[in-house]
Specification:
single chain, about 400 residues, mainly beta, Immunoglobulin-like, Thrombin, subunit H, 5-stranded mixed β-sheet, 2 helices, about 40% strand
Amino acid sequence: MANAWTIGDLIRLEGTWVDTARDFAPFDPAAVFCDVITPGNITTSYEYGVDAALQRAGVGSYFIDLPATEVGEWSYHFWSTGDGDTEEFGRFTVYEVAFDSSSCIIPDDDDIIVNRDECCVICGPRCEWIFERLRAWPIIKGGTRVEWVIHPRFSDPKPYTFQLQFGRTGNPMADDWTDVGLSVVDTYFAFDDTKRVYGNFQWTHYRVILSTSLGTYASKPQDLYGSLPRRQWRIAREIERAELLRLRKEAGQEGYLLKRRLFGNACSCLDPQTKELNNPQCPICYGTGYEVGYYPPYPCFYAELGLSGTDSKLDNGQARGTINDAGRTWARMINSPQIFSRDVWVDRDTDFRWEIHSIANIAEVTGLPVIVKAEVRRLPFSHPVYTIDIYDEIPF
């Protein structure tokens, strides 16, 4: 099923059941159900044999023809009881007007609109719907294979030219995306023969740039923490969708993620022999050790902050007088883009800047971290990171 539609379309939601013990032969479970969740978080439940909307197409095959009546992201969940108990997730997006792929063209810096009401230019549909899925099979020594699937409703004329790129942050707005090899035409995969990572941490991310005669489009960055089978991938997407809805509607605060630079040109404040920082308040690297310090802010990044406090006291022994050290707390976040220790989260409403420290996974799908809980510490207002401009932080 296509994942994007417009108001007025009739969308067919399908669920199938097979018996893995009998060569994946289709079968009918004892009872079949389907839950449909609207963009407004209204759930409608259907039961086969009770609700006429849920119909049987054949053995092990059930469907609902659903009219697209509301703009936004929908999700659905087929499930059953009895023998062969199973479940299947899916989601799709409904737009108000027909697709205009030109609205997804990668913007230049001069094209970025500052008005908060037009945030979709920066972090809304973007170009991600064009790439229905991106998968990567990492080979540490080199030879990583990256595959992609183009959305069936993408209608730009061929030829399609694809350029594989790699980066180290997962931030689509970062400036370290680098072309991998030559571009390929009208295909669905590419290889990276270069070894990209050393040490103990997997930094590498990939994305694909699609160029046509009408525009240039970017996929969502893909990390290398495993290529999920389709069912697990859909479960992970559903967990992420539900968490984002919860953060937006109820528990979260909107902000920006500043991804710390871990590579690049060393700052002049580093000791030439020990490579240690001589100036933690350096206005060039902001205490990171690399010029510029952080990548451009990733917008619309939500976090649920725990309770925090402060501790005012007379400092004995360090000659700082009366101090008011900011407390620390935890933040629940979606791990997309991938979060690293020492990244900084900026609260859009208060401009408080929180440095991320230890990170724990609280929701995984076959080892892939989807939701994390991080210890965060509010940086003092004297920290140079407060001099980093956030282009649309002033409310309108």
